[in-house]
Each structure stands twice: as structure tokens, then as C-alpha cells.
């Protein structure tokens, strides 16, 4: 994607300008980001998803059994008929994994790294409904799908921002309104992390939230060090060969500066292993939200070739995530939390596997003639990241 071409989605600015001036910095309101946008789902279909055991959903009632009552799904069919006329909202997470038309929306976001995208959450709100003033720790594009929603945008918050006492929801106790916009279907609001916002349905409304993921520093440290530790033996320890003898004024109980330096060296030696860091990061960022939906099946290489020659089509499992990178020894494919090291000659196949809507004789045929290429496709089917499309 050419970074300087004006994008309708961004209101006629280029990806380059957006990344320079707005991304992670300030809100951007775009009128008719997707002109004539028609929500691929209607409220009943969204409510239908919220009945499923598998799918994460919640309802927030402003005046429920308690103020801002949170109910967690899955819900029963009669839940919705018992809802009040106003002031409640239903939120369904990761709808892109279940509804291909919703996943297609992500095509508009090709100017951002795919591994930063988390999911498309869809909310339905009765008039007056919303989840209260709050902030999120991630970037979000709020696309209006149906009806109108008023968005109030406020201050930039942090961990010390005062919250209402609430067991489950993080609702801001203070909201300093800086902007107030009513969004119509097709309008979109980009919000950087930690900007306070408050969406209120003007009428029956549906909002699509394209959310991004960024690990917290605490997650990076704990997960990376856990990953690293698998490769370290118990014998490798803090060591102090050549330690200086205690001098007249030093105390046996004092941890001296040189001990701290030895410790820092030990950490540095492992923390600066770029290949392990990249491997961990690729695996972490491609970890599927629903690992149980990434279940593969064994396929013989001959059967794979025959199936593709026969016109069958492979698609990415909607629950799988893929990314790739390169290191000195070759290319790394990260597929749903696993790494495969591949030779340079498979670079174009890697890109194809990560980006193609579907793999078929036309784009895959030549790669199946290559032993390594065929093996990779077979492994991805076995691992569950690729699957044959239903007839
Ligand atoms: C909503 O769609 O109601 C909430 C989205 C958000 O504020 O993050
Ligand atoms: Co939010």
C-alpha cells in the first residue's frame, strides 16, 4: 500500500500523514469513512451471537440492579425481550472471527501492521445506551454501523485517573469534555490509547470497534522471561569468580556495586538475544484468541497436491493469526503462536500465505511443486492455521 495516497477511510489524508499526526497521538473524526456503509449484521443477529457459549459478550445497563450493571454472556433468548426500552448496550467481542463480512472490514486497515489488530467488537445500544465514560489502553477505530451515536471525547487519562467505585467496570469519575460529535452510519472516530470517551446512542444503534493490541510492559517482561527461561539450564547461575576481597571498610552483609553489575551482565546477555526476542514476540502476537478453534488435521502431501489440482481452495482459519519476519538464518513464519524457520526461497510463499484471501491452483500450484513449499502448506493445515474452504 502506497503510504502517500489519500485514503477515504482517513478522510482524504494519507497513511503517512495519519501515522505522523494522529496514530497514538490524537483523535480523528472522519465523516463517511466508508460511504453508504451497511452493517453486515442486524441487532437480532448480534443478539444471536451473544447466545453462543463460545463467543464473549456482555450487557451494560445504566440503571440495572445497580448503577452500570454488567452482565456477562452467554445470554438466553428471553434476555433481550426483558430488556428496558432505553439505556442499555450489548457488546460482542471478536465478531470478525465468526462473520466473514465483518472480517472483510479489516481490509480497510492494510496501512497498519496486521499483527497489531486485535478484533472487531460490535455493540448494539438501545436509545441512551452506552458503557459510560471510560478510557481504553489501546487504539480503536469506532465505525458507526447503524443508527446514530453521540461520542464525547475527553481528557487523556492514566493509571491515577479517578474511577467510580465499581467491581467490574472502569468508569471515570471525572470527564472533561473536549469534543462532542454525532456519528451517522459510515462515520468513524479514531481514538488513541487512554483518551477518555463516552458513547451515547441517540437511537437504536450499532457501533463497530476495530481494536488494536499492544502488550503491556509487564506482559512483555513476564512472558519473555518465561519463554527465555526454557532455554536456560539450572547450572547457569549468578557467578562471582574473581571477586575482589573485602577491604578494611567493607561489610560482609552489604551487597556491593560489583554484585549488581554481575547481575546486570547476566540479564543483559540473555535479554539482548534478538533472535529469541523476535521469536517470542512473533509467537506472542500471533497467539489466537480462541486456540481451541485452531485445530488442524493431518494431510498426506500427495492428497494436498491432488486436492488443489482438483480445484479445492485453502483459506486462513478465521481464528488463526499469522506474521513473518527474518533473521540471519532465514525467514520466520509465526502462525498462531508457533514458529517455523524457512529458507529464503520461500519468501513469496510466506507473503502469500499471510495475505491471500484464498490459496488455489492459480497462486499455490507452483509452490506445491517445491518440497519445502509443499511441506509448509501441509504443516499449516496440520496445525490448523489453514483449512479447506467448504464447498
Ligand atoms: C461501544 O461500542 O459501546 C463501546 C466502545 C468503546 O467505547 O470502547
Ligand atoms: Co472504549
Automatic annotation (TrEMBL):
Q: Which Pfam families match?
A: JmjC_2, WHD_ROXA
Cofactor requirements of the protein: Fe(2+)
Query: Any idea where the JmjC domain is?
Result: 101-229
Which keywords accompany this UniProt record?
Dioxygenase, Iron, Metal-binding, Oxidoreductase
Entry's Gene Ontology molecular function annotations? 2-oxoglutarate-dependent dioxygenase activity; metal ion binding
Q: What is this protein called?
A: Cupin domain-containing protein
Q: Which organism is it from?
A: Pseudomonas nicosulfuronedens
Amino acid at each position: 500500500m502506497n503510504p502517500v495516497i489519500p485514503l477515504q477511510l482517513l478522510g482524504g489524508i494519507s497513511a503517512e500523514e495519519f501515522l505522523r499526526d494522529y496514530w497514538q497521538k490524537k483523535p480523528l473524526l472522519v465523516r463517511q469513512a466508508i460511504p453508504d456503509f451497511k452493517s453486515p449484521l442486524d441487532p437480532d443477529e448480534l443478539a444471536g451471537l451473544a447466545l453462543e457459549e463460545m463467543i464473549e459478550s456482555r450487557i451494560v445497563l445504566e440503571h440495572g440492579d445497580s448503577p452500570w450493571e454488567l452482565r456477562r454472556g452467554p445470554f438466553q433468548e428471553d434476555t433481550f425481550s426483558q430488556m428496558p426500552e432505553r439505556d442499555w448496550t450489548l457488546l460482542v467481542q471478536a465478531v470478525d472471527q465468526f462473520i466473514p463480512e465483518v472480517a472483510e472490514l479489516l481490509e480497510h486497515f492494510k496501512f497498519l501492521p496486521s499483527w497489531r489488530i486485535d478484533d472487531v467488537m460490535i455493540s448494539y445500544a438501545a436509545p441512551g445506551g452506552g458503557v459510560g465514560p471510560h478510557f481504553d489502553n489501546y487504539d480503536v477505530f469506532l465505525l458507526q454501523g447503524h443508527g446514530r451515536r453521540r461520542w464525547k471525547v475527553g481528557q487523556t487519562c492514566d493509571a491515577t485517573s479517578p474511577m467510580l467505585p465499581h467491581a467490574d467496570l472502569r468508569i471515570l469519575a471525572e470527564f472533561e469534555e473536549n469534543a462532542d460529535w454525532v456519528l451517522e452510519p459510515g462515520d468513524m472516530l479514531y481514538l488513541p490509547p487512554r483518551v477518555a470517551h463516552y458513547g451515547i446512542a441517540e437511537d437504536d444503534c450499532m457501533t463497530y470497534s476495530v481494536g488494536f493490541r499492544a502488550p503491556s510492559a509487564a506482559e512483555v517482561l513476564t512472558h519473555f522471561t518465561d519463554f527465555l527461561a526454557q532455554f536456560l539450564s539450572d547450572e547457569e547461575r549468578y557467578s562471582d569468580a574473581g571477586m575482589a576481597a573485602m577491604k578494611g571498610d567493607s561489610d560482609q552483609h552489604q551487597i556491593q556495586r560489583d554484585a549488581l553489575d554481575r547481575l546486570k551482565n547476566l540479564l543483559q546477555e540473555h535479554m539482548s538475544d534478538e533472535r529469541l526476542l523476535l521469536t517470542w514476540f512473533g509467537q506472542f502476537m500471533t497467539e489466537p484468541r480462541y486456540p481451541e478453534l485452531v485445530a488442524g488435521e493431518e494431510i498426506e502431501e500427495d492428497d494436498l497436491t491432488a486436492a488443489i489440482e482438483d480445484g479445492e481452495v485453502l483459506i486462513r482459519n478465521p481464528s488463526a493469526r499469522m506474521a513473518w519476519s527474518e533473521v540471519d538464518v532465514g525467514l520466520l513464519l509465526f502462525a498462531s503462536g508457533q514458529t517455523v524457520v524457512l529458507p529464503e526461497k520461500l519468501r513469496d510463499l510466506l507473503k502469500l500465505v499471510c495475505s491471500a484471501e484464498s490459496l488455489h491452483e492459480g497462486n499455490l500450484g507452483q509452490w506445491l511443486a517445491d518440497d519445502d513449499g509443499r511441506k509448509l502448506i501441509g504443516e499449516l493445515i496440520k496445525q490448523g492455521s489453514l483449512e479447506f474452504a467448504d464447498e
